[in-house]
Every structure is written in C-alpha cells, then in structure tokens.
C-alpha cells in the first residue's frame, strides 16, 4: 500500500461526510417507517439534537473498564470498517486506506464492534444486556455465514481480495455488476444484510417489547452518544461494502448517496412489512434460506 | 427486609467464606451531588436547547394516567414530531412522568428509577392525584403530594388530562428547560435529606440503599 | 338452577338459595361442607372454573362472609357459594389444592382482611402492600381517611363538595 500523509485528512473528510449523511439518513429512514404507520415521525435533524443532548448530560456512571471500552470498540469497528474500504471509486481523495487485502479486514471489522459491545454490555451487569448479547451473537453468526460465502464467491469470481479491483471489474455497464454476473451471491448477501440492520424481523437484539432494549440498557450520556454515532456510521460502512462488491460501487458522491439510500431502503421495506422473529426462527431462516444461496453461488463460480 | 438483602456469610467457589452485606456492598453509598452547569452561559444555553428538544420519557406508567400517554405514539397525536421519544431504561431517559396516582409501593420503584436517571432530569406530575390526591384523597396507600417525594417541574391537571393537554405540557416544559429552570436533579441533591426523610416517612420497610445512582 | 340446588340439597345440608338470574345463583352453606360441595360441583356438575374468591366484612354481626364464585363454561351458568366466619381469629380451610389460583385470592384475603388460610402456599408473604403496620385495610373498622391524614402530607386548599348539595345550590339558588 502506498501511503501519503495527505490520506489522513482525506479520510477524516470522508468520515465527516458519512457521519452527517448517516445522521440525516437514519432520521429519514425513521420518517419513512413512520409514514408507513401514518405518522410524521421525528424531525429530520432530531439525531443531531439527541447527540448534543447526550454529550451534554452532566453526570454519568461507570460499571468498570470494559463498560468504557464497549462503545469505543463499537465505534472503532464502524470507523475502521469505513476507513479501510474505498468510498468513492477512482477518487484519490476518498479511496481512504484501502489496500490489496482489504476485503478480509472488512469482514473482520464487521464482527469487531459487536464483540466489543458484548464485552462492554456484559460488564454492565444488566440481565437484558446479557440476553441481548447472546441473541445478537448467535444471530450474527448465522447471518454472517451466507455473507462470508457470498464474499468468497465474489473474490473467487474476480480472483482478487482488493475491493478496489472488484469495483474496477464491475465498471463499464450496469450489466457488469455482480448483481447480474453472480445473482446468487448477491441474493445470499442481501438476505444476510437484513440480519445486520437491527430492523424487524431481525431486531431481536434490541427487541423493544421483550428485552428493552438489550445490550445498551445500562448505557447513557456520552457512552450512548458514542454508540449513536456508531449506529449512523456502521450501517453506511457496511452498505459501502455491499455497494462496492455487488452494485458496481460509486464514482461520485451523488451516486454514492443514492445507492446507499436504496440499499438501506431495502432493509426498511422488509422491516415495516414483517413482525419480529424469535431467535431460533431467525437462525433457522438464515440457515435454510440464505445459506444454500451462498453455497450455490460458490459452486457456480 | 427480603432475605437476599440481609447480611450473610457466603462461601465462595474457592472455599473461602466471607461476609456480604448487600446494601453496603452492592450499591454505591454516595449521596447525589449538585452538578454545576457548563462553564459558559452560551454553551449551557445550547445544551438546554438540545435537552428541551430531545425529551426522552421513561416508559414507566405508575397509574391509570399511563393510558393517556400511549395515544401520543399513535398517528393521531404523534409526539415524536416534537422531539419526544420513549426510552425503556431509566439510564437513557431524562423525563419521568408520574402518570396518575402513586401508591406507596410504586413510590419505591419510582424513587429507584428516578435516581438512576442522569442529571439533568425532569419530572412531570400527570393528573390531579399527583397534585393533591385527586379522587384518592382518603386512600390508604396513595400519596397526596408528589413534590414531597420527588422534585416536580410541571403538573398537568385533570382526571385524566387528554393527550392534547400532555402535548401542551411538553411545550411548557420545554420553555422551562430553555429558561434554565429545569434544575430538579440539583434540587434533589441539595435537599436530599429532606426528600429522604419524607420518603422514609411513608415507606415503612425501606429495603434499598439510600441512593441508587 | 333449582334442580341443581335440589340435587345438592339431597346430598349436603345447604342454606337458602338466592337466584339472581336464570344462570346465576348463590347458595349459603356452612364452612365444613364447603370442600365436599366444591368437589361435587367441580367433578360432577362441570363447574370447572373458580372465577373469584372474595370476602365481605359484616362488622355489626361480627362476621366475615366468604364468596366462592364458580363458572360452568359449557352450559353458561355461574354459581356462588357463601359462608360466614366469625370475625375474631378468622380462619378458613384452604382450597388451593382444588384450584391453584385460589392461593392468590387467599393471599389477598389474608393481607386485606386478615383471614388466615393455613397451608396455603406463600400465605404470609406480602401481596400488594409492602411494610404494612396497621390493621388490614379492607376491614371496616380501619379508618382510611384518618390513616391518610396521619400518614400522607396533604396539600392545603382542597375543598370537598357534596355533589347533591352542590347541584341543588347551583340549580335552585333560592332554596326551593
């Protein structure tokens, strides 16, 4: 990897754009969800206010070192994921710190935040947190399987582990996208995508009516604000990977915004249409429906 | 007092016996302290604006008034438009609505929930029961004045007040917060002994620590 | 219901029958026949559901009245069994082995009226009240107003209106 000092401010600029876009996008998604219920929902700038308020709370308590580190791990998982994948294809400014083997690193970072969170939430000592973490990790393991298979299928297909090269191979026409060249891998990955977006029918980690609200139960003020920041970065970082691997990447910011919005919308549409699964139903669903698609994708490649 | 809260000898997994006093060992013993505002008036004003526009209500219904809070989430009233959201855990909430009558037994839970919320925090007394006992003025277990036990920022009168009244109450509370007068948490810390005295007067079996941060 | 009463009366010495509706009747009986009558109703007559168990305080007579309400869902009829207990040291046989739900009612009666049901599960645990020190609050010799005034701080300025007199004053200010 060729490194220049200028890449650091460029990466920070990417981060800045993504955080702001994420704050607005998450609120927009909530608004769309609310419109389905014939409500108007939160104002579009509500996430900014919530963030300021949580940073501005005067008191906070701790349950131990891991309790501090949980949100930090989570945030570094999201930020790391974002920084090691090229956000805009062909742009020197927004290729971030991508390098030849970044696909493997990205796969690792997807898991990293959740593990940190599990440790932090475990230390908070709240029973709901423990239940939420165990649900989350088991569901994530099931959901990651088809995703990993799809990623390997794509890597085999293009004979590379560099996201930039995968994007490069998809340029030219819409029909060059992985979506059309390897539809089974994309289908498997998109089903797995549902599992990681914390929306129904796979929101059994937070499960607002069962174990309110799962792992972050004990988190408050600045800790919660850190996690909120991650909640807006992480889905976008994850969608960026999807966009790059399967939907031809983005060559400019407007295309980026549009594609991320549409991919995010997919999980929202599924979310407003279906009620929540139980843990065993969810895991069985991933293993029965998504996993075979992933295997087919690998076999066909 | 419950058996699990009593002082006892416990044998650890390594065979060493030690004494456990749950109320001393499991909880923090420090009383709350008065938290100063931000050093600069502009910053504090900005924070107060954010606090006012982002009211997170603790999802804890103490009495029948809780039924009037539910419609606020529905399309007809949709309080989310005004920055009002519900949080299921006291750690993340900053507004506690005592919704209707508060019995002695519920007061215990209300105190614990209130003390777990983070400074600054606000309390709304909903319905006549919190003001002067309302129709439960001669009841054997309903408190008649909420402000003797928790610092109240705002009362919404009625039996029950309609959801519209609640929305108006939120707007009034926002004005109070923006003006920097929503200092219930600091008031609670400052007159902690007085509040505790009142609370212990009605709760005869005090089986919790004096302060649950 | 009369047929049922006649049938029961041949087996057990029962008190009077009070019919409320065609499908709801109350039978008075003495405490020692409660269990056989309940068993008979449950196992032979199809009254499989214990709807409620509650008490009334007859302070002037010095007695508690216990009411067991049973329901026969298949035939859509209900029957209530009433019995009297002496108020001092009130104690009654527990029926938690017939209907497990009865244990909850019995805990409530133990706490709110002070009626003992020996052998009922968790009978002496606190049910609704916590740290109650006075006499059981549903007894009629318990003065709730006095208790509330002594224990809870009142907000001054509260006025109480007698609704009948208030409306009369409003509508007929001349006192007609």
Detail the topology: elements first, then pairings.
The complex is a heterotrimer of chains A (about 300), B (about 210) and C (about 180).
Chain A: H1 7-36, H2 46-56, H3 65-83, H4 102-124, H5 127-158, H6 163-170, H7 178-181, H8 183-195, H9 221-246, H10 253-273, H11 279-300
Chain B: E1 8-11, E2 17-20, H1 22-25, H2 41-53, E3 55-58, H3 66-69, E4 84-87, E5 95-99, H4 104-116, E6 122-126, H5 128-132, E7 154-156, H6 163-178, H7 184-190, H8 192-202
Parallel strand pairs in B: 3-4, 5-6, 6-7
Antiparallel strand pairs in B: 1-2
Helix pairs in contact in B: 2-6
Chain C: H1 2-11, E1 17-21, E2 24-28, H2 34-43, E3 49-58, E4 63-72, E5 77-86, H3 102-112, H4 144-151, H5 163-171
Explain what the structure shows:
The complex is a heterotrimer of chains A (301), B (213) and C (176). Chain A has one domain. Chain A is mainly α and 301 residues long. In chain A, helix 5 packs parallel to helix 11, helix 6 packs across helix 9 and helix 8 runs antiparallel to helix 11. Chain A is globular and about 55 Å long. Chain A is 69% helix and 0% strand. Chain B is α/β, with parallel strands linked by helices. Chain B contains 8 helices and 7 strands, in the order ββααβαββαβαβααα. In chain B, helix 3 links the parallel strand 3 and strand 4. The mean pLDDT of chain B is 87. Chain C has 176 residues and is α+β, with helices and mostly antiparallel strands. Chain C has one domain: Beta Polymerase, domain 2 (2-Layer Sandwich). Helices cover 27% and strands 23% of the residues of chain C. Chain C contains 5 helices and 5 strands. Chain C has a 5-stranded mixed sheet. In chain C, a hairpin with a 2-residue loop joins strand 1 and strand 2. At the A-B interface, helix 2 of A face helix 2 of B.
